[in-house]
Amino acid sequence: MVRKSMLVSLGLIVMAGSVAACGGGGGKDKAAASATPAQSAKPSASASASPSEAPKEKVKLKFFTGKVETVDLMNDLIAKFNKENPNITVEQEYQKDASNVIKVKFASGDVPDITTVVSQDYIDQGKYLDLSGESFWSRVVPAIKDLSTDVKTGKQFKVATNMTMGGIFYNKKIFAELGLKEALTWADFKQNLATVKAKKPDVTPMFLAGKDSWTLGHLIEFMAHGVIKQQYGVNPSRLAFINNDASKLSFDKPGGAIDAFAGRLLELKNDGLINKDALTATYDNQKETFVAGKTAVISQGMWVLGDLLTLKPAIKDDIGFSPFPAIVDGTKPVVLSAEDSSYAITSGSKHPAEAKKFLEFLFKPENLKAYSEFLKSPPAFTDVSADWGPLKDQAAAALKTGVNIAFTDTPSGFSGDDAGRMVQELLAGKYAASLDFAKAYKDAWDKAWNATNKK
Question: Cα dist. 250→51, 80, 227, 258 in Å?
Fold first, then answer.
C-alpha cells in the first residue's frame, strides 16, 4: 500500500461526505474497564440477501462486541434480522473490557460467531475466517480496504462499516471569546489551556475521563504512538508494532515518544490544566461537562459525536475539531484517520454461512445509512450516502493539517484498557519520572508480546 495515495483517498472521502471504510475496531473495540451483563436482541423487521440456502434447523449466532455507543442500535438491527430470518437467532453480548474478555472466550471454547474485537495476535493464530473473497469488497473504498488488510498475509479477516477520526474536540464559543486558535504545537496547546484557566476559572481547560481507562489508553495510542507512526509511515509502523521492532519503537528511549508523552501529561497535571478528578471522572462525565460549556477541550473520536448531539443538539455549532498537537519538538500534529466498526467471523463458528448472511444484512445500504447517521461517522461503503454529522468540513481540514495515522496493532495481552491503567498510575504518582513510566510501559508491552509469540 502506498501511504500517500491512501491518505489522499481518505481526505477525498471525508470531503465528499459520502465515505466508505472497511476495517477494525473503532478500529478495534475502544472499550473500557469492567465487564457488564450481556445484552440480547429483541424482534422487529427487514430483509436480507442469502449467500446459501436457508438453514433447515434453528441456528443461534453469538455476536460479541465492546462498542458501547452502538449496543441499542445493533439490538434494533438484530431484531429486524431475526424477524426476517425465523430460522436464525442472533444474540448480542456487550462487554466493556471486550479485548480481555475475548481471551477468556477463546481459551474456554465459548467462541462467538461474529465479533467486533479483532487483534493481530488472533489473526496470526487463525482465529478468524478469511473474508478476502466476499463480494462486498467491491463496494468498499480502497483506502479503507488497505487498512483492513493483514500486512503479513495480504488477506482480509475483518470488514468495517465506517471510517473514524480522532483528535481534539474544543468549544468554539469559548475559543472565540478568548481569541484562541487551534493549536498544532505543544507550546500553543498548553498556552490555550493556560489562557482558559486564567480567564475562565469556572471552566476546566482539558477534561480527562480517567476512570474509563480506554480514554487514557487512547492518549498513548494517538499522541505517543503518533510520533512513531508519522516517522515510519502507515505500513512500516504497523509492521514495527506487530513485530515489536525495538529499534523503531524505542519505547524506553530518553526523550522518545513514551517519555515525552508522560512528561507532557504530568505538565498538564502539575499546572492545573486538567480536571482534579481526572482519575475518577467517567466518559459520561466528560461528555456532560463538555456540552454544558464547562470544559474547553477533550480528546476523543467521532464516536462521541452522536452522544454529544443527543445530550444537547444545539452544541453542534460550538464543536470544533483539530489534530492532536505535536508532543515532540520537530514532529508534526497527528489525526486518527482509520477504519471503524469492524466485524469478523471466527474460524471456530459452526455456522459461517449464517454469519455471512447476517453481515450481508448489516451491509445493506439502508442499514449502513442508519448506522452511520446514528453514530455520526462516515460510512465505509461507496453506495451509501449519509448525513453523518456537522463536522464534515472540519474533519476534512484536519486531514490536511495533521499527519494521518491508523490505530495501533497491540499485543492481545496489552489492550488499550491496560495501557490506560498505566496512565492512571502515572497520574496517581506511581512513577518518579516520565522515563520510569516509559521503561515500565516497554516492560509491559514486551511481556504481553512475548507471551503471545511463544513458540
Answer: 47, 49, 11, 9
What is the block-wise mean pLDDT of the chain (455 residues), using blocks of 10 residues? 42 42 36 37 41 70 93 96 97 92 93 94 94 96 89 94 94 98 97 98 98 96 96 92 96 97 98 98 98 98 92 96 96 94 96 97 97 90 91 90 92 91 98 97 96 75
Of the options 3.30.450.40, 2.40.170.10, 3.40.190.10, 3.20.20.140, the CATH number for the domain spanning 20-164+339-388? 3.40.190.10
Determine the Cα–Cα distance for residues 167 and 144; give it in Å rounded to an integer: 19
Which CATH architecture does the domain made up of 165-336+407-452 adopt? 3-Layer(aba) Sandwich (3.40)
Which residue matches cell numbers 499522541?
223
CA separation for the pair 345, 73 (Å, rounded): 20
DSSP H helix total and E strand total for the chain: 19, 9
**Pair 82, 88: CB distance under 8 Å:** yes
Q: For the whole model, what pTM was predicted?
A: 0.76
Long-range CB contacts (< 8 A, 24+ apart) of 147-150?
147/6, 147/21, 147/22, 147/23, 147/24, 147/27, 147/234, 147/338, 147/339, 147/406, 148/22, 148/23, 148/24, 148/339, 148/342, 149/1, 150/120, 150/123
CB neighbour class for 357 (10 Å; exposed up to 12, middle 13-18, buried from 19): buried
- In total, the chain counts a number of residues equal to 455
